[in-house]
């Protein structure tokens, strides 16, 4: 099963005191990168939020928007102790300097800490409800990711199977290729004979050179092994496998390139080009896989 790194999730809930709306969206990224837009009263919870979202989404560039609206009519209170302290101090100053205290009430209510918003402090019970809404949004986002991943799985599998199919076409093309190599080798032998006595050391070196340079068996075996390994990893149930699949794809690409450099055949070169095209399509899809 595959998960895309692209997704969107939204959840909301209304309680007797609050309306909570959570929106989370993610796009592909090599690592986990979280940006939050939340009320100042919940800034202290950002580390907790980061851990929760990271454990759920693992990788991706993530944007979280948390909106909490207070639905109570009376959403503020007076800090009486702060009011009394300010009022007494200001009265003393006013009396000492013969200043009118007509606007003193208004002045005190504007001072820091006198009028307190009821939602300034984090209510832990309310926070638990908010976490539930966040988890609902995460579940919706992961469902979106799974749907996209499922479609991508089918596409990637079709491309890797196509590489395997193209690989099976290399063997039939090898007969003509081998005949050409034999012709070249015989031509080299004839040139040596024309010059007189055959240098056995030189002949052995020529044979080893051609056998090593143009033998494709090792590359074909390794390429098939890498393709099989890729499919095995692709079909595993682990949620995060994009990085490992990318590594295996790099190995597949190396074998395809080596096959091309050794081909010495127009038919096999065409097959190699098609394989590279399929590998490029897989690479493009893997860039968005978790």
From TrEMBL:
| UniProt-listed NCBIfam families | YicC/YloC family endoribonuclease
List the source organism. Answer: Aureispira anguillae
Which Gene Ontology terms cover its molecular function?
hydrolase activity; RNA endonuclease activity
| Family matches, as InterPro entries | YicC-like_C, YicC-like_N, YicC/YloC-like
Please give the coiled-coil regions recorded for this protein: none
Q: Which cofactor does it need?
A: a divalent metal cation
Pfam families, sorted: YicC-like_C (PF08340), YicC-like_N (PF03755)
Upper classification of the source organism reads: Bacteria, Pseudomonadati, Bacteroidota, Saprospiria, Saprospirales
Enumerate the spans annotated as Endoribonuclease YicC-like N-terminal domain.
3-151
UniProt similarity note: Belongs to the YicC/YloC family.
Q: Which controlled-vocabulary keywords does the entry list?
A: Endonuclease, Hydrolase, Nuclease
Domain Endoribonuclease YicC-like C-terminal span(s) in chain numbering: 173-289
Protein name, entry field: YicC family protein
């Amino acid at each position: 099963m595959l998960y895309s790194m692209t997704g969107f999730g939204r959840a909301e809930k209304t309680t007797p005191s609050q309306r909570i709306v959570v929106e989370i969206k993610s796009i592909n990224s090599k690592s986990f990168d979280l940006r939050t837009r939340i009320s100042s009263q919940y800034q202290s919870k950002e580390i907790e939020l980061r851990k929760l979202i990271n454990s759920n989404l693992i990788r991706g560039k993530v944007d979280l928007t948390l909106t909490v609206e207070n639905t109570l009519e009376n959403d503020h209170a007076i800090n009486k102790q702060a009011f009394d302290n300010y009022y007494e101090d200001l009265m003393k100053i006013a009396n000492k300097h013969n200043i009118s205290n007509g606007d003193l009430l208004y002045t005190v209510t504007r001072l820091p800490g006198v009028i307190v918003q009821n939602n300034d402090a984090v209510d832990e019970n309310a926070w638990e409800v908010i976490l539930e809404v966040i988890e609902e949004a995460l579940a919706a986002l992961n469902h979106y990711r799974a749907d996209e991943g499922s479609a991508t799985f089918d596409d990637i599998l079709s491309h890797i199977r196509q590489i395997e199919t193209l690989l099976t076409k290399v063997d039939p093309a090898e007969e003509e290729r081998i005949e050409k190599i034999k012709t070249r080798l015989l031509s080299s032998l004839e040139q040596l004979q024309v010059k007189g006595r055959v240098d056995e050391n030189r002949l052995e070196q020529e044979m080893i050179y051609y056998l090593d340079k143009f033998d494709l068996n090792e590359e074909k075996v390794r390429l098939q092994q890498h393709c099989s390994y890729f499919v095995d990893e692709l079909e595993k149930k682990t949620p995060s496998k994009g990085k490992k699949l990318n590594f295996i794809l790099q190995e597949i690409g190396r074998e395809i390139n080596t096959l091309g450099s050794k081909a010495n055949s127009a038919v096999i070169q065409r097959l190699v080009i098609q394989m590279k095209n399929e590998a490029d399509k897989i690479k493009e899809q893997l860039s968005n896989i978790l």
